Amino acid sequence: MENTEAVYLTKERLIELEEELKNLKTKERKNIANKIAEARAHGDLSENAEYDAAKEAQSHLEMKIMKIENILSRVKIIAPEDMPDGEIYILSNVKVKDLNDNEEIEYTLVSPEEADFEEDKISVISPIGKAMLGKKVGETIEVNVPAGLIKYKILEIKK
Question: Does the structural domain 7-77 have CATH classification 1.10.287.180?
Fold first, then answer.
């Protein structure tokens, strides 16, 4: 069954996905078609590992294209100015203090499709993201994660 839930993205991420889809449908499809043709030219396909690998790559590419097309069909554009002030929502930039080690960390809460832990963009459906939603400056959250219990105090919320 196909997912029909809305996918909330920023305008920037929508543009990135559209560009990625265009690249996959044009350049990548052509590259794989060339690899299949080249492998086919080597003769017997029943024992042609190069052909099998190219067909497998083609299958993966088509699945990736379908996934992106599905996401794009459900996109709802969101902007920080659309979110309420004073509480943590999607697209909030949140500065927290880790009460276990007194380290200050800044996170941006994003949709699952935009999450990137390397850039401190955490999904609103992650344990930490869920715990932050709706909270205000001064509140404390506790989150059980695989590494143990994390305690954060909300220091600042920015759009």
Answer: yes
Which residues of the chain does CATH 1.10.287.180 include? 7-77
Calculate helix-pair angle for 29-40, 49-73, nearest 10 degrees.
160
Partnered with residue 35 across adjacent β-strands are: none
All CATH 3.10.50.30 domain ranges in the chain, comma separated: 80-158
Looking only at the bridges linking them, the beta strands covering 75-77 and 7-9 are: parallel
CB contact set of 43 (below 8 Å; sequence gap of 6+): none
pTM of the model: 0.69
Model pLDDT for residues 10-24, shown as the tens digit of each residue: 888 899 999 999 999
pLDDT digits (tens, 9 = 90+) for 103-128: 999 999 998 888 898 999 999 989 99
The CATH code of the domain at 80-158 is 3.10.50.30
CB 78 within 8 A of CB 90: yes
